[in-house]
Amino acid sequence: MATTSVLSVLATVAGLLVLSGCDGPARGSGAAAGSAAGADRNHPGRSRARPADPTRIPGVGERLRRRIPADSRQVVAVYGDGGDSADSTVVLYTRRGTAWERTRGWPAHNGKRGWTTDHHEGDGRSPVGVFTLTDAGGVLADPGTRLPYTRSAGFAAPRWWARSHWHDFDYVIAIDYNRVKGTPPNDPTRPEGGAEGGGIWLHLDHGSGTSACVGLSGAAMRYLLRTLDPDRHPVVVMGDRAHLG
Questions:
Q1: CB 222 within 8 Å of CB 204
Q2: What is the CA radius of gyration of the chain?
Q3: By the 8 A CB rule, do 94 and 234 touch?
Q4: In b/e form, how buried is each residue of 187-213, taking b as 16+ CB within 10 angstroms?
Q5: Cβ proximity of 105 and 90 under 8 Å
Q6: What pairs with residue 88 in β-bridges?
Q7: What's the pLDDT at 51?
Q8: By three-state DSSP, how is residue 44 classified?
Q9: Partner residues linked to 99 by β-bridges
Q10: What's the pLDDT tens digit per position in 128-183?
Q11: Which of 69, 150, 159, 162 fits as disulfide partner to 184, beta carbons 3.0 to 4.6 Å?
Q12: In angstroms, how far is CA 133 from the centroid of its own chain?
């Protein structure tokens, strides 16, 4: 009789689990609650938590957000993996009304020594901040950008560099750090002086860290060149995640 009673109870519990759709501990136990929370984080669309504010760019804190021009409707966000890391992710956001929408994203590389809030020539770090994007160019012909584009063999990487770097500057978009807007990206003028560095670009990736630029795939660069629009006042917001937040 005791065996029959135990089997009956087990059968009843099993039936309840099937009906509830569970495949583990009942909802409300610590294990189940933790599992559900993890699933929500991995699938934000299914989360019961309060959704992110669409009027803010994810991961960008108030300090840098205030530096994004009010008329900017395109933001290239560069999310560095860490303060001393050369790995990053680039995401293009487009503002529609008051909401920022994620348009596209790509893996990327930044300065080989990471990031800095006080960039100097030769430090191997990319500068943290918000910078306008006004001019483009490269070795190759204009792929169809609306930005002013300067084609010149003068962009070619020196042939004494490693072969993997020879095509870095086939396409470039100047990051307006210590440069004169409205000039070709390779204009050497440094308004704040040479010690502050310059010539910081979005350019083709060679698979590792840069001197201070941000490297992306050829497909990503062509997409950005064809999508960035001066009338939308594009800017880049860049830094490691700690400084961005």
A1: no
A2: 25
A3: no
A4: beebeeeeeebbbbbbbbbbeebbbbb
A5: yes
A6: 80, 108
A7: 60
A8: helix
A9: 96
A10: 999 999 999 999 999 999 999 999 999 999 999 999 999 999 999 999 999 999 99
A11: 150
A12: 15
Locate all alpha helices (DSSP H) within 28-144, ordered by sequence.
30-42, 62-65
Residue with the two structure tokens 């009956």: 8
| Averaged pLDDT score across all residues of the chain | 84
Residue linked to tokens 């086939």: 170
- Residue 206 structure tokens: 């060679």
Task: Look up residue 230 and give its two tokens.
Answer: 């001066």
Residue 131's SS3 state is strand
Residues 131, 144: Cα–Cα separation, whole Å? 23
Q: What is the pLDDT of residues 95-122, one digit of tens each?
A: 999 999 999 999 999 999 999 999 999 9
Backbone angles phi, psi at 218, to 5 degrees: -60, -40
How far from the centroid of its chain's Cα atoms is residue 232's Cα? Answer: 19
Contact 228, 145 (CB under 8 A): yes
> Is the alpha carbon torsion for 122, 59, 202, 160 positive or negative?
positive
